Amino acid sequence: MARNLHYDQVRAPRPFSCESETAMTLHSAGIHHVTAIAGNAAANRRFYTDVLGLRFVKRTVNFDDPGTWHLYYGDELGRPGTLMTFFPWGNGAGARRGTRGVMQVAFAVPEEALGYWRQRLTSSGLEVEEAEGGRALRFADPDGIGLALTAASPPDSEPWAGGPVPPEHTIRAFHSVTFSVREPDRTRELMQDIFGYTPAEGDPALLIPSGNAGGGAVRVVEDAGTRSSWGAGVVHHVAFRCAGSAEQEQIQQALTDRGLRVTPIVDRRYFKSIYFTEPGSILLEVATDQPGMAIDEPREALGERLVLPTWLEPQRATIEAQLPPL
Ligand code: ZN
Hints:
alpha+beta; 2,3-Dihydroxybiphenyl 1,2-Dioxygenase, domain 1; 6 helices; globular; disordered N terminus; binds zinc ion
């Protein structure tokens, strides 16, 4: 199977292994993508490309709702571990960030880049807060999604060099996501038992994926407050990586054995996915690395035109006419 060797040398998903007769621990290589809901599509594109400097790697529609954009941002090839995607829903009616939700998405940047980013974000009009003893910058995107840039030794990704951020400062990959739930132990157990995450030394609320020195950690915090609900400015789901279809089926079975309801495998064109709701009520996905974002466009032209799956091509003119401008 073809692989992005440069990337996988560092972040290779380890194969499933059965370590004992009772424990079945899979070894996730971390976060695959994060999907959130935006308000205005053009403001979203401007922020993630012009301010954060990510590559606009795919402009397509929500396959389940073709009147809505599905916008993908990431590194040079939109590799798993770097992909942030959005459904722009127009307005924020009904949206609420709260417990049973994702409170923060953090990207890894080189430690020496933090000063650059503080200046860049501030001069873009953002309120920036220092966190983690000066090792992270916190801010929000135009719809209020909590973001952070965290100093970390990121995996050897290939950041987008065609954007406005100098290559030495670019976002490298996801650093972590923060889950806010009522009973954090139940969520932590699932992350450890099914995905092989382990608590970080000296910071047990932070779970680190196996086989991954850099990105894709999960922080689980307790919050008994008001429940989050989907709408602009709220994360929709987080996807974790699996090595391939065989491992995906094993995860599907392991989740089912745990009493969780899991979807059948869904073909998302760029990856194959299963979805389930974890015990803290956050929607999660398990997605394959292959075939990747370059399956339907040349890599040098990713994200430049609207791409539709074949079954929607006959409706291209209608779809293009109703999508909001980018
Ligand atoms: Zn997804």
